[in-house]
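re: the backbone from monday

yeah here it is again, tokenized this time
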């Protein structure tokens, strides 16, 4: 789980789940703020919480992929549920890797490091090892009210916020030389077009290449 302001991102079983939570607390007038008037129906003015969720699913992914955890953080959360009355401790990590989420393709997800431009977001990498076929990667967006490509980036919009996947940066893992790539959007399914060099087909590449989009999200406030 990664939480930034009122957006929480859950990761697991080949999915990213974005959840926006917003308090519906009534904005008080000047008289209410100084205690001269209160909402008779709710003294606190609290009208509950609005929640909206968007699911981003890796179609055909290995739902039982091995999970590698890195960057153990100091803070953690304890959960006490009916099925585990003794409690469960959930630790935090700065990076997780799903090994072979697709055949010969790993999926890395990590939080932004201090000093990076997207200091409140996260990024993920697909590491396509020799023998892996990047065309297997298909990402379905469920719950977006609109989804479109703009200047090469993907923008998925919901009533409470948006998610942007910036233009992918793809490079050879051994030489770090950039490989031209772009998104393909077919209805609500995102995939990649990668201009692999001649002679580097899926079965005869000697090194891996990395697809590295960056995620950014925003929330909508006001009317």
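seq for it, each position gets an aa:
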């Amino acid at each position: 789980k990664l939480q930034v302001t009122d957006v929480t991102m859950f990761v697991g079983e080949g999915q990213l789940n974005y959840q926006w939570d917003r308090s519906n607390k009534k904005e008080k007038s000047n008289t209410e703020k100084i205690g001269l008037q209160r909402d008779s129906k709710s003294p606190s003015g609290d009208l509950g919480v609005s929640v909206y969720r968007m699911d981003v699913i890796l179609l055909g992914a290995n739902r039982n992929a091995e999970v590698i955890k890195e960057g153990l953080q100091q803070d953690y959360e304890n959960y006490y549920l009916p099925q585990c009355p003794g409690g469960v401790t959930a630790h935090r990590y700065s990076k997780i890797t799903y090994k072979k989420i697709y055949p010969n393709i790993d999926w890395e997800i990590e939080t932004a490091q201090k000093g990076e431009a997207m200091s409140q977001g996260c990024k993920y990498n697909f590491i396509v090892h020799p023998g892996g076929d990047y065309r297997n990667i298909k990402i379905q967006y469920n719950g977006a009210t609109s989804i479109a490509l703009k200047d090469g980036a993907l923008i998925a919009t919901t009533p409470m916020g948006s998610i942007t996947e910036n233009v992918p940066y793809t490079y050879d893992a051994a030489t770090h030389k950039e490989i031209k790539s772009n998104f393909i959007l077919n209805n609500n399914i995102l995939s990649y077009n990668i201009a692999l060099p001649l002679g580097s087909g899926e079965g005869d590449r000697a090194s891996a290449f990395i697809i590295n989009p960056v995620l950014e999200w925003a929330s909508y406030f006001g009317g």
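The mean pLDDT is 79. The first helix runs from residue 30 to 33.
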